[in-house]
Design brief:
The complex is a heterodimer. Chain A is of the alpha+beta class. Chain A has two domains: 89 residues; 232 residues, BirA Bifunctional Protein, domain 2. In chain A, the strands form two sheets. A seven-stranded mixed sheet of chain A has the order 1-4-5-9-8-7-6, sandwiched between helices. A two-stranded antiparallel ribbon of chain A has the order 2-3. In chain A, strand 6 and strand 7 form a beta hairpin. By secondary structure, chain B is an alpha+beta fold. In chain B, strands 27-30-31-35-34-33-32 form a seven-stranded mixed sheet, sandwiched between helices. In chain B, strands 11, 13, 14, 21, 22 and 23 form a six-stranded mixed sheet that branches. A five-stranded antiparallel sheet of chain B has the order 5-4-3-6-9. In chain B, helix 6 packs across helix 7, helix 7 crosses helix 10 and helix 8 packs antiparallel against helix 9. The N and C termini of chain B lie far apart (91 Å). The chains are: A alpha+beta, B alpha+beta. At the A-B interface, helix 5, strand 1, strand 2, strand 4 and strand 5 of A face helix 8, helix 11, helix 13, helix 14 and strand 27 of B. The complex binds zinc ion.
Chain lengths: 341, 806
Amino acid sequence: MREKLQELCHEALQALDAAGSLEDLNETRIKYLGKKGALTQVLRGMGKLSAEERPRIGQAANEIRSAIEERLAARTDELKVAVQEQRLRREVIDVTLPGTPVQWGGKHPLTRVRENIQDIFLGLGYVIAEGPEVETDYYNFEALNLPQDHPARDMQDTFFVSGGNLLRTHTSPVQVRFMEKTAPELPVKIIVPGKVYRRDDDATHSPMFHQVEGLAIDRRITFSDLKGTLDLFAREMFSPDTRTRFRPSYFPFTEPSVEVDISCVMCRGKGCRVCSHTGWLEILGAGMVHPRVLEVSGYDSEEVTGFAFGMGVERIAMLKYGIDDMRLLFENDLRFLQQFR
Amino acid sequence: MRVSYNWLKEFVDLDISPRELADRLTLAGIAVERIEETGKGIEKVVTGRIETISAHPNADKLVVATVNTGAEKLQIITAATNVRAGDVVPVAVEGARLAGGLVIKRASLRGMESRGMMCSGRELGIDPATMSPEEAHGIMLLPPGTPPGRDAKKVLGLDDAILELDLTPNRGDCLSVIGVAREAAALLGLPFRQPQAVFPELEENISGKVKVEIEARDLCRRFVGRLVKNVRVGRSPLWMQQRLRDAGIRPISNIVDVTNYVMLELGQPMHAFDYNLVREGRIIVRRGREGEKITSLDGVERELTPDMLAITDPSGPVAIAGVMGGLATEVSKKTTAVLLEAAYFDPTSIRRTSKALGLRSEASLRFEKGIDIDGCAGASARAVQLITGMEAGEAVAGMVDNYPGLVPEKTLSLRSERATHILGVEVPREETFNILTNLRFKVEDTGNEMLVTVPTYRVDVSREIDLIEEIARMYGYNRVPVTLPYGLSTAGIKTGKQAFLDRIQELLAGSGLYEVVTYSFVHPRVFDRMNLPENSPLRDTVKIQNPLSEENSVMRTMMLPGLLEVLAKNYSRRVQNGAVFETGKVFYPRRGDSLPEERLVLSAASMGRTAGSWNTPSREMDYYYLKGVLENLFRELGTAPVAYRPETANPSFHPGRTASLETGNEKLGVLGELHPDVLEKFDIPEKVTAFELDLAGLLAVSGRPLQYGALPKFPGIERDIAIIVGQDTPAAEIMDTIRSAGGELLQSVSLFDLYRGEPVPEGNQSMAFSLKFQALDRTLTDAEAGERTEVIARALAARFGAELRG
Ligand SMILES: [Zn+2]
């Protein structure tokens, strides 16, 4: 009997080693350890054994069972690992294939730049104000210290509509409208983004373009504050090492008036084609609000002062993105727009 | 304005280079755009006298000249036809460089050696526009007495630097050499030499020979006349011609050149009349009369009006004051006496007249900006000095100076604390005093304030703030410190509307659409292209009275045409798939003089297919594509439920593929496929789907706050139901019916399949819905879900005759 058991054990272990899959293992288990398995068959013959022999054979049978079970467990683990490995090998993909596309469009570069400008001034406590694009002569010119027949009206060739009204030539009329509504409350800190229109059409002018205007009015606003604000703006908008230069200029609605240059974004001030070899790029006009403009808008020009500035969004977009032809901004070629997303 | 550096030096001893001067002026508000160095790059051009000219033995069109250049006699072959023996011309000798980089070498022309070249003005870099046609085409002829062998650049005055100024409109005083010289002197702290004109006069006096009457005293505030006799009209000296050319003015004759020279130098426009052609020597300055005509110097007959100021004699107009002289009294070769006018005319009147006549002259440009009324007499004297100095005439003694109302001096008070308040920096009192004095303001310091008297030529200075600006620009803007405003802090936030607009742009960009920017003005034909009937209110536009072209002549009343043009243009460039959107204003006229109504709209249009990929099929960007974009947009904006009602009569859209978008009774806009006729008119071969929404309307029904609802604690049950219904049954109605029949247990319903064709009977379609049932307080049983599904099926059968499938 003992020999029989030994033989069985040997046979079972060999079968387990030979099993090539989890299914084979299972079959082998049933064959040897199952209810009708070989081990049970052998033990069934125990009744014929003597009382002394019985426990010894019983112990031997248990040892054999656990030896087979142990081997079974080990083999199961081995085969599971093998199966897993096989599966992972089968599931290899080409990780370099392009991903599933997500539909995505883009905002116009002019919108991006406008938002950029807005965000800088929102951060400085300005609010956004808006006004009509078709304006009266009063708000577009008269209230801004540009009476009829003023030579400076030539600076802004105007589109007229009926009733003496016109397409606004700048966003400045919103200054007056806003101050009229707000006076005598202080402070006033607004920026005014919007479309403006001038009777010009060539490589560097579009009959419709975009401006962002700014206005700050309070009791103690000075020309040095104007410089500080615009210097900060230039560094935020372009790069922290951008330098500014302030040149006297003339606008009827500000005095002193100033033209602001930044160090060239292309050559960093060394001189290149973009800056006509001067190292400087003109980006905006500004000045202290003219006392007459404050007066017509309802403020006491002896009590309050303020500054105003205005910039062309197209110009800044062109500098920021290196666009060399303004017309691209209005052609809406999708291949162009797709570059801004 | 183009200003000669050498000319400036006659009034101020400049000790810096033209480049440095340009930088200093620019930083003081007199912007120098460009410096042009005359004669730059031109080398080895000398004066030469032609001694002989003979025919070329081998060529008909060439001649052989012997030219004396002082040091030697050169044989030069030329094709020029305007040279004769005895002429003095500029000669480029061997090794010379000319304008444009041309280098002169010894050459052989048809077998004869040529050792140089006679030069035209163009070859010396002179702008042909400032030369007479003969001069522009031939060899430049120098005055006969010019000695040979001189540096031609020096002789011609081609050794100068011309500063091209970009003047702001307030600085009319700098439309003159002395104006710029005064600025330069003030900036550099150098003395300025005020010119004094001294000249010999004849015994005879002007009185009785010239009479000036000013009738229109409001338009002519001063008129100075002088008389020059024994005039010999000829060419002006080379140096004068070159200075005029450098300023962009063509030399004409000595007398006319002098008037232009004085205008450039002193800023006083002048005019010379042929005295013998002015009736009775009498000038009457008056308004033009209705129907009155004058032929101006350019040969054009012009009609005067009572708004225009005329210089007349007893027979009629002899000049349009301040704009252009008359042909009849023009100075010519026959002129023997000239009457010189130096006057002050009202800026607004000159501006209006030159605008009305479409005639801008160097004179009108200056009068418009306001000239120095005190300078008339001096300028007149300077002209006579120049004429007599070049022996082109003799001065009759005295002048006629009709100056009816002397202009009082302007004195302003300046408070230094006010200047500090504006500038944010305290400019020391002494520096303020020096700045103003250097600018030739008279300053009286009373201790509290300064009383500042403004020179008459500074017409731009009339308020204290103007003086503060003068101080700031002379002090130097770049010396002012950099500070930030302090005071009440304010919150920088967008209004609801701005945030809403920004969000829309973001969402649409995130949905695959590209934002475009199109012009607010359109061609009126777009309304035809949009198929609008003649009486459509959208054809009632705000019209531009002076459009650049018809292309941009009316303000848009709808945005869609602009987007269709964008798609058409892209299509023609072979970009045939794409979706675009724009937010902007449309304009509706209002009655009378009121400003038009401006409404913000959102428009989008799509064409072709989405970009597919190896694992993603491309999809058509059709009605359902844009509807999906809108549904997503509305969900994100928290918009009230939007109904899509079939819109069958919109002339721009496909009658069967268009919806009116409504919330309650409010129409938000339209979504649909464009009508094939419209697409044909826009030249788009693809189908296009588009929407246009009113943004104020959308904003009004959006912004529903998000609200948390309890999550289900018990499992729900999903059931599918498939029905066969008629094809014309609107899906929205079926789904509404399902929802109401489903009651509160029905949590959601979605259409997951739609099928037409075999085996579904003709005219019908199969629709499959997925229903999700859920109770909040218990686990739903299969029986409950089954029962509800049956109720739904019965309702569909009752309402639409729907047949349950499979
Ligand atoms: Zn540069």
